[in-house]
Design brief:
9 helices, about 210 residues, two-stranded antiparallel sheet, Glutaredoxin, seven-stranded mixed β-sheet
């Protein structure tokens, strides 16, 4: 098993390309390129910016406030698309492995997605995650971090064809998702690490975040 997260993600991509028809692969490739061309990556809140405050619901219905978390220590926030995305789940499992090291450095971690509370609960149970997953309806907080986008129609049709019902999973018809993104927020709410990619097959490694804690 590769140690670096990106090696694992690249293996998912290689496996997908060996199994899926080229015309179907092209739909995803085109959507990624169009998102990149839109300048989506340029809108992410940069290092040095003030992170938006938030109060979101966790998988058990409890409200979690960034203010309370930052009173304890630095906060890693990772945005993911949903439990239907194998890249997202591989990333969350990598964070689970890194979680003891992160906690030993005095930091906290939350994962955020537009999924409904019950979907986040499924995610935690299925992947044995020790950190909270928070619901961000219609990717409203993701928008404040500069990483929200609307899934284009060709990808909506593609998701439906592979039985990924995003409106059902997220509980709304907006088709809004976050770019996969990771932020490290200092206790004064300053962003110390910020990476997001238009290509959902690329993610920062937890070790890169831990290195600056």
């Amino acid at each position: 098993m590769p140690n670096r997260l990106q090696d694992q993600l690249d293996q998912i991509t290689a496996n997908t390309r060996s199994l899926v028809q080229p015309e179907r692969l092209a739909i995803t490739d085109d959507a990624v390129q169009n998102l990149l061309d839109s300048g989506a990556e340029s809108r992410i809140l940069p290092v040095g910016a003030q992170a938006p405050a938030f109060a979101l619901t966790d998988a058990r219905g409890k409200q979690v406030r960034s203010e309370d978390l930052l009173a304890i220590g630095p906060l890693v926030v990772t945005f993911f698309r949903g439990r239907w995305c194998p890249y997202c789940m591989t990333e969350l499992e990598a964070w689970q492995k890194a979680f003891p090291d992160l906690r030993s450095r005095g930091a906290l971690l939350v994962a955020i997605s537009p999924q409904l509370q019950r979907q986040n609960d499924f995610t935690i149970q299925r992947h044995s995650l020790a950190f909270p997953i928070l619901s961000d309806p219609a990717s409203t907080l993701a928008e404040a971090f500069g990483i929200a986008y609307t899934v284009p129609e060709p990808m909506r049709l593609h998701y439906r064809s592979i039985m990924v019902n995003i409106p059902f999973i997220n509980g709304d018809q907006t088709w809004r998702l976050p770019l996969p993104a990771t932020f490290l927020i200092r206790q004064d709410s300053t962003i110390a690490f910020a990476e997001a990619y238009a290509d959902h097959r690329v993610r920062p490694d937890p070790a890169d975040v831990l290195a600056i804690l």
